[in-house]
Amino acid sequence: MERKVVFPQKLLPYLLLAPQIAITLVFFFWPAGQAIWMSTLLQDPLGFSVQFVGLENFQAVLQDPAYLATMQRTFLFSFGVTALSMIPALLLAVMADRVVRGATAYKTILVIPYAIAPAVAGALWLFLFQPSIGTIAYPLRLIGIDWNPRIDGTDAMIVVLIASAWKQIGYNFLFFLAGLQSIPKSLIEAAAIDGAREIRRFWTIVFPLLSPTTFFLLVVNLTYAFFDTFGVIHAVTQGGPGKSTEVLIYKAWYDGLIAQDLGRSSAQAVILMFIVIGLTVIQFRYIERKVHY
Amino acid sequence: MAAPLDTPAPKSVRRDWIPHVVIAIGIFITAFPLWVAFVASTLSNPEIAQAPMPLLPGNQAGANYGEALLQGGRSGRILTPPVWEMMLNSTVMALSIAVGKIIISILSAYAVVFFRFPFRMAFFWMIFITLMLPVEVRIVPTIQVITNLNMMNTYAGLTIPLIASATATLLFRQFFLTIPDELVEAAKIDGAGPMKFFRDVVLPLSVTNIAALFVILFLYGWNQYLWPLLIGTDARMQTIVIGMSKMIDSAGGPTDWNMVMATAILALLPPVLVVILMQRWFVKGLVETEK
């Protein structure tokens, strides 16, 4: 889409664009280019010599069992967070759609966690699950569950999963509710007159009509779980115990800044770039949106 | 009389309570961690340690919040700066990022939509592609750039690199395309230049979009984690979210949970208040920035 009537100035638009383009070049394109370049270099541990090695870093990373384990863990974690935040949100939205009064107040309360920083959400849940004193850990201990996210990898994973999903439920709820409210009531009434039961009505009419919303939320939540949960993991488990909550972003950060393995961490960065590009392309190509290019 | 038709069937009367119960459970799950955190922030550490912890507020609120705000918390031997300093850093960061993003995005969108010039679409795509280059994929080289520019541990380093925004530019571009051509023509006939048109017509029309974006971007700036972790390594540049997470002793040593929870409450209050008080714009912002 283009405007028909425009202003004739030639220099002004460049000046208007200059600040954004300058930031983009200096802080986005240049470092991204550097990351790609560094991913093809091998630096000796003392930093004296640098050698061009082509795709060897990628080969090393993709053959590293620790990296593959982290990748698998990241996918499980991301789909776990997505399911754990979308399913309750859908259930809540279906229920709120039936309630005539109070829906606005419910929205206000349910969306609050979305405003909270992931690391803070993580701290709240870590506290509830703190062995011996946590309000949730205490009854677990009483019924004989030896709960300790500091020692047990599965327990740690459960805490970061719950904290990450908790933050997103309200967001998903808002979009599901909007989706439900845009379905013409006459359609559902027609099915009701035809004698379709409520649950059947949901699966045959409502859910298919919601599928654009569902697909959109699926991509948004996967992106969130992939990238924005760094704060939860860094604040709550530091990737541990062992490596049991280490996800790809955490590993890229750790290998690059703490372990200082530049070549391999850059190769990881480039792999992540491909994942973001994939997710962005899906988001823009396959999701029905108002923006057309 | 249609009254008999309006009478609900007995079955639905019987099941009317289900939605309320489910929503009540949802609200409970949402509110419970917040309530427990608030209660813990009003207790002394020995009170928290006696399992089970009380679920009603204690009388240490004044002492805890006073200590956190003025003296800071402790993790092992590391002392965090007073929370008010960290809140100031977070406020500067959130406001600069929100305002900065809005200004440079509205200007770029205005340039791309209301002018014709060589490389117009190339510039537009450059801005768009930043969506695919989040900090996470360029951690090490970005730190080098910031170090070379002497921007480590400065407000400039914490904010300027984050104010490029594809999302905000796309949103403004989308909105500008809906402004009727007649308005532009009328402005030209009146002899108004592009900047006058921008100030007198485009800006006033964009107010609701700006408000909606502001809410979303304030949350974005306040809740940043990886960026301040990389750039604000000095304790005096720490944001409240980073400071709070540093108070948790990840080595498993004793953690002052009342301090952590008081800081957590202070860290979540500003964005939560913004969302509640600006609810209408918040929802608009969410929907608009994702479409």
Tell me, what's the shape of chain B? globular
Distinct helical segment count of chain B: 17
Helix content of chain A: 55-70%
What is the arithmetic mean of pLDDT of chain B? 87
Map the helices and strands.
The complex is a heterodimer of chains A (293) and B (291).
Chain A: H1 12-38, E1 41-43, E2 50-52, H2 56-63, H3 65-98, H4 103-110, H5 118-128, H6 137-142, H7 153-181, H8 185-193, H9 198-228, H10 230-236, H11 248-258, H12 262-285
Antiparallel strand pairs in A: 1-2
Chain B: H1 3-6, H2 10-14, H3 17-40, H4 45-49, H5 61-71, E1 74-75, E2 78-79, H6 83-114, H7 120-129, H8 139-148, H9 155-159, H10 166-176, H11 181-189, H12 194-205, H13 207-222, H14 226-231, H15 240-247, H16 257-277, H17 279-290
Antiparallel strand pairs in B: 1-2
Helix pairs in contact in B: 3-16, 5-16, 6-7, 6-10, 6-13, 13-17, 15-16
Quick overview:
The complex is a heterodimer of chains A (293) and B (291). Chain A has 293 residues and is mostly helical. Helix content of chain A is 70%, strand content 2%.
Describe the structure.
The complex is a heterodimer of chains A (293) and B (291). With 293 residues, chain A is mainly α. Chain A has a domain at 76-243: MetI-like fold (Orthogonal Bundle). Chain A has helices at 12-38, 56-63, 65-98, 103-110, 118-128, 137-142, 153-181, 185-193, 198-228, 230-236, 248-258, 262-285, and strands at residues 41-43, 50-52. In chain A, α3 (65-98) packs parallel to α7. Chain A is globular and about 75 Å long. The N and C termini of chain A lie close together (7 Å). By secondary structure, chain B is an all-alpha fold. Chain B folds into 2 domains: 14-59, no CATH class; 93-238 and 272-289, MetI-like (MetI-like fold). In chain B, 69% of the residues lie in helices and 1% in strands. Chain B is built from 17 helices and 2 strands. A two-stranded antiparallel sheet of chain B has the order 1-2. In chain B, a hairpin with a 2-residue loop joins β1 (74-75) and β2 (78-79). The chains are: A mainly alpha (293), B mainly alpha (291).
